[in-house]
Amino acid sequence: MLMSEVLILSQDEVQSCLPMGKTIQAVRDAYVAFAKGRVQLPPVVHLDVKQYNGEVDIKSGFVEDFGIIGTKIASGYYDNHKLGLPPGVAVIVLMDLKTSMPIAVMDGTHITAYRTGAAGAVAADVLARKNSRTVGIVGTGTQGRMQVLALKEIFKIDEVWAWDILEDSAERYAKEMSERIGIEVNAFAEIEDVVRGVDIIVTVTPSRQALVKKDWISEGVHINAIGADGPGKQELDPHIVAMADKIVVDSLAQCRKIGEIQHALGQNLITENDVHAEIGQILIGEKPGREADKEITLFDSTGLAAQDIAAAHVVYKQARENGLGHVTKLLNT
Ligand SMILES: NC(=O)c1ccc[n+]([C@@H]2O[C@H](COP(=O)([O-])OP(=O)(O)OC[C@H]3O[C@@H](n4cnc5c(N)ncnc54)[C@H](O)[C@@H]3O)[C@@H](O)[C@H]2O)c1
Question: pLDDT by residue (tens digit) across 127-180?
């Protein structure tokens, strides 16, 4: 490809280039680069498109390690179903860090789904007990699926317990996922039943009020709090955040504003000094991960542009190698 050429990749092409194993490695690399200060991430731009019941998040940045500038424009348009359209889309644009020349435009929907699942697995790898076998899923949508697919790459999961605000969604999930991953997946009507006594809890809903109660939390559990990625979003009783032996975030700058910890900070149940680490600091050995079986650990994920850039970079390299996509000349140069 010439310097002025851009590779356009469809959702199917992106999907074929990004298996979960590679995504997990890419997300790990992204967190490491972030911890080493080789990433620049400006704050997320949020647009409310009230006239069409929609919202748009623009996440951007660059990662020196990959030599890439990336921007993801991701939407949630909640009336799209009336038009037979998906409830949101994401597009990623990559540019070369050295020259700023655009190199790729690709679907970002699959990348968002996979890189978020992968984030949960990367965190659980250093924070959950190594012998974790059971996973409790709160929210059986896209991320309810992705989180389990990713955790299965790291742990010998033999049971998944699932709850959703829509009972039939949890039941559909149980049927689909047990066939897809070949392990026992059961749906429960009470949220408490998927949280009590499980090894890893994953919360993946857009809830704006606490769903998981403090009394249900057992010693030694690891919690991946994934759903709260915007102001006001909340899935955990803030006392759970306060009781955790180790609170780990993807980025403190983001989580203090839009993550699960925003509520515990707001109610003065914790201070920022109580945050044990950003996940990358654990991955580079600057801070310890889990140190004892009985520790309660919490990972608060809000999603970093660096994850998108890392995964999109993997896709770009693989697509070039496989001769996939449509090459076009965007500029006159
Ligand atoms: N941290 C990150 O990097 C990251 C990345 C992607 C998505 N997310 C967030 O994760 C959450 C889930 O995303 P998804 O793509 O799986 O969405 P989804 O719509 O596919 O699934 C959400 C599920 O939650 C259930 N639900 C909806 N409202 C609820 C409520 N008030 N209480 C309890 N359950 C409710 C729905 O029935 C659905 O099954 C969203 O908040 C999304 O913004 C975070």
Answer: 999 999 999 999 999 999 999 999 999 999 999 999 999 999 999 999 999 999
Active site residue 72: yes
166 Cα to the center of ligand 1, angstroms: 12
Distance 6 CA to ligand 1 centre (A): 33
CATH topology of domain 5-111+306-329: ornithine cyclodeaminase, domain 1 (3.30.1780)
pLDDT at 333: 76
In this structure, which CATH number among 3.40.50.720, 3.80.10.10, 3.60.20.10, 3.40.50.2300 belongs to the domain 128-303? 3.40.50.720
User: Which residues form the pocket of ligand 1, taking CB atoms under 6 Å from any ligand atom?
Assistant: 112, 116, 139-144, 164-166, 169, 204-207, 211, 226-227, 229, 233, 301-303
> In angstroms, rounded to a whole number, what is the distance separating the alpha carbons of residues 73 and 177?
29
**Tokens coding 287:** 């801070």
The pTM score is 0.96
| Average pLDDT of every residue of the chain | 97
